[in-house]
Each structure stands twice: as C-alpha cells, then as structure tokens.
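Action item from last meeting closed. Structure (508 res):
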C-alpha cells in the first residue's frame, strides 16, 4: 500500500472512531490521575472549611452581641455575702407598684463611679420602666446640682427627681462607718444604698408625708440619732410639741410620740391627749420605771385599758434573757401592728421593762393585743430599793407579763384610735439595737408604719446591709481585657487559622 493510501486510511479511521482518538489523547499515568483528583478534593474541602469557619465566627459574634445587650439580671450573679448588688423582694414589689416617672442622677466624674452603687442602680432601672438612671459629670455640668440643692454634693451622691420634687442622697449616708477610738481609724461597717434609694423614691413620689409629733417638757428622752435617721428614712417628718403652749395636738399629726417622761404631764395636757385619741388619733407611748407620781400619764393609759405594774420584770428562763435576767428577750407575737416583723423571726432585746396589766373596766370597743411577752417563768421585783438578789422571792409578782401592747378602738365613720405602748424606752437605744443587729429599730419601724398609715402607701424602709469585703468583683481593666479577648481576639484567631489551612490545602 502506498504512503498516500495509508494516510487516507488513517484519516478515515479518525473520522469513524473519534472516541478512540480522544481516549488516546486523554490517557494519563495513574499517579497523575490520583494527584489531580486529590487537588480537586482539597480545593473543595478547603472551601467548605472556610465557609464553615466564617459561619461559626458570625454565630459567635451574634451570640456575644445578644448576650451583651441582655439585662444584668440575666448575665450576672450576686455572690456577695450580704447581696450588696441585689435588691430585696420588698423593693421589687415597691418598684412594680411605682406609677410615676423617676430619674436617678449619679453625680460623679466619668471613670470614678462607685461600682457597688452603679450595679445597684442597674437593678433599679431593670426593676421598673418608670426608673431612669443618668450619670452627671460635675466637671462637664458644674451647675447641675445647684438646680436641686445649695449644699455641696460629694462624688457618687445621688439626686432622685420626680416632677417638681427631689431629694439628695449623700454619699456619706450610703455607707455606714464606725470609729475605733483607740486608733481613731474609721471602718466601713454597712451599706445602706437600697434603703436610702427606696426612701428617696418614696419621698419624691408621695403627695403628703406623715408628721410624728414628739411631746416635750417633761424630761422625755431624746431619740437616738440613728433612730431619728431611721424614722426620717421611712419618710416620716419629726416635729416637737409643747402642749402647754399649743393646747391641742395639731391637725396634721399622723402620730403622737410620748417618750418616757420623767415627770408627770399636767391635767390639761392629759385632757388634750385623750381628746386627740378619742377623735381617731394615733400614739406611740413609752414608759420607764420611776418612783415619781405619774397620775395623769397613767390616766391616759387607763383610758384604754392598760396600766403599768410596779417594779421591773426579771426573766426566770435563760432562753429569754441575754447575760442578765433583766435584759429580756421576749416572744414576738404576730398582730396587725407587727405582722411583717414577726414573720421574719427576729429577736428583740428589752432591758429594765415593767409589766403591763390589762384592766377589767375597759370599753367593749377597745381591743388590746400583746406584742411582746415574757415566758411563764418571769416574775417582777417590786421593792427595787431593798432588792438584794434577782432570784425569785416571796412577794414577787408572777408572770407571764405583756411588755408591749397594741390598742385599737373602732369609733365608726372610718375612725379608729391606734396606740402602741412599750413598757421600756431602753428597747430603742443604739446599744440595744446593735446587740440584735438592728431588729429593735425594725420593730419600731413596723409599729410606726401601722400607726402612721404608711403600710398602704408607697412608703418603704429597708435596713442597711452589713458591709462584707468578701464580695467577688472583676476589676474594670480585667473586664475590658476579657471582653476584647472573647469578642475580637478569639474570632480573628479562628479566621486566620482557617484561612491558613485553606491556603495550605490549595497549594497541595
């Protein structure tokens, strides 16, 4: 066969078998085929990895943004021993009932905020839609505080505003302190932020504040400073009253306080007090043992079915006294006057108390309930001048004795007389109160709320919390570091690692 014929035959074979020719061209070594296949697989898997990494990073960022925007009550846990960064259930209920807009200004330069106060304010803002918290820098706004007070306002003080009413909560009143007179060093002992803020909110949202008149002119004991502060914190105004000059109890009196007079009141004062009570008045009365004649004072008590017994009460049951048998730890009975207090199970300390006796000739409209009572083992020493022992002797009056009572008399026409009578004024001094961790003053606060009619109002009184430095706190610098680390460093690192792996696989 000639060359030209062979060439024509070869061309014809190509035309007739194109697939065979293509197969010859595409035929490669097995090693190369495997390598090409792996490269395609790596490229495909690397693309998937980048996509998955990107999706993961986006999810992490979104989750962080969502968590960061959540209220602190969902993201933070108060692990301090005294719950310094939390608000009590009483405050939570108080905020739920709030129906007026209140703004709380924290007066402090930026970067110098008291973290404890700042965290507490966040709880208030989260607790009610009517609470708004703002920070005012006195450097930026030097004249801001002058709108509400002419006094100097310390850093981290608060100004609570509602409409035209305002109240300044000084930084010094938020933290309680004591002085060691041996070293003259001051130590922070308590945190009263919640109590002070509640009091301020109650003050600015109240229309009228109750007035407590204290009877003067008969050697009455002055209220201890801490007790006065507690009463004022409950938004009750305190005014003195001289019935010799005034002749009658003022019409705006929410309650009359008679604090253990050492000399008797006059006949006209007795009549004025009884007239006030018989017209729906309220009174808190204290008495101490005295050998002075107190006929007119006792007449006020007898008009409502009670009288003082002679001498002082001695407790025979060691479970009902502290150190000395006349430092009484009475049983707290749940009555309308102190029901909330009684439910908390606190102990009170009542020294040098007289017993209270209920008379038989009291009106049927008068109801007398015992607030504090001794054990059955208590007895009363009547001859104190010749007393040589606190042990029970012949002639001693046998208990149990009421030591405090609440008295009510329904007068009709929605009028009601209310009296709380304590047979010892020593129950309400700072030393006795400190011994029982503030329980005595809380008892007084509960009684005054009942007398002054603040239980159904917006008034609230929260005792201070013992300051405990064992609370766990993260410094702001550490918090910033970890925030940046979680939201930026970790996602960027994951992205770079993923991108590096993808490049490596692509080159293979």
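Sequence:
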């Amino acid at each position: 066969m000639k060359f030209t014929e062979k060439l024509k035959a070869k061309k014809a074979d190509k035309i007739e078998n194109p697939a065979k020719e293509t197969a010859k061209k595409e035929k490669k070594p097995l090693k190369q085929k495997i390598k090409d296949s792996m490269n395609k697989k790596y490229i495909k898997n690397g693309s998937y990895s980048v996509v998955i990494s990107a999706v993961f990073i986006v999810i992490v960022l979104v989750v962080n943004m969502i968590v960061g925007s959540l209220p602190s009550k969902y993201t933070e846990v108060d692990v301090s021993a005294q719950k310094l960064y939390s608000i009590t259930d009483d405050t939570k209920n108080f905020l739920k009932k709030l129906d007026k807009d209140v703004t709380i200004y924290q007066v402090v330069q930026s970067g110098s905020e008291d973290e404890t106060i700042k965290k507490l304010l966040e709880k208030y803002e989260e607790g009610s839609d009517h609470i708004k918290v703002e920070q005012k820098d006195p450097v930026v706004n030097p004249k801001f505080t002058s709108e509400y007070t002419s006094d100097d306002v310390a850093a981290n003080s608060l100004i609570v505003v509602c409409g035209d009413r305002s109240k300044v909560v000084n930084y010094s009143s938020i933290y309680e302190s004591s002085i060691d007179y041996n070293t003259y060093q001051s130590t922070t002992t308590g945190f009263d932020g919640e109590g002070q803020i509640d009091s301020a909110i109650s003050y600015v949202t109240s229309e009228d504040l109750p007035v407590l008149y204290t009877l003067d002119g008969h050697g009455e004991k002055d209220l201890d400073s801490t007790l006065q502060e507690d009463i004022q914190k409950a938004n009750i105004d305190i005014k003195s009253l001289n019935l010799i000059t005034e002749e009658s109890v003022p019409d705006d009196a929410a309650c009359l306080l008679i604090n253990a007079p050492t000399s008797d009141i006059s006949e006209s004062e007795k009549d004025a007090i009884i007239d006030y009570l018989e017209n729906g008045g309220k009174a808190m009365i204290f008495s101490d043992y005295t050998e002075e004649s107190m006929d007119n004072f006792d007449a006020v008590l007898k008009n409502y079915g009670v009288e003082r017994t002679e001498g002082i009460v001695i407790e025979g049951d060691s479970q009902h006294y502290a150190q000395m048998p006349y430092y009484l730890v009475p049983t707290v009975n749940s009555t309308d006057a102190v029901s909330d207090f009684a439910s908390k199970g606190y102990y009170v300390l009542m020294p040098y108390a007289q017993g209270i006796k209920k008379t038989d000739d009291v009106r049927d409209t008068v109801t007398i309930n015992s607030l504090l009572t001794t054990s059955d083992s208590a007895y009363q020493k009547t001859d104190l001048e010749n007393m040589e022992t606190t042990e029970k002797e012949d002639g001693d009056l046998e208990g149990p004795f009421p030591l405090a009572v609440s008295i009510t008399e329904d007068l009709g026409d929605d009028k009601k007389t209310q009296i709380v009578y304590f047979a010892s004024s020593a129950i309400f001094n700072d030393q006795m109160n400190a011994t029982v961790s503030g329980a005595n003053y809380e008892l007084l606060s509960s009684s005054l709320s009942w007398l002054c009619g603040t239980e159904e109002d917006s008034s609230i009184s929260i005792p201070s919390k013992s300051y405990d430095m064992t609370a766990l706190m993260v410094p702001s610098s550490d918090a910033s570091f970890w925030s940046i680390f979680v939201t930026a460093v970790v996602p960027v690192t994951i992205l770079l690692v993923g991108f590096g792996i993808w490049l490596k696989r692509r080159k293979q």
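Note appended to the action item: The longest helix spans residues 30-69.
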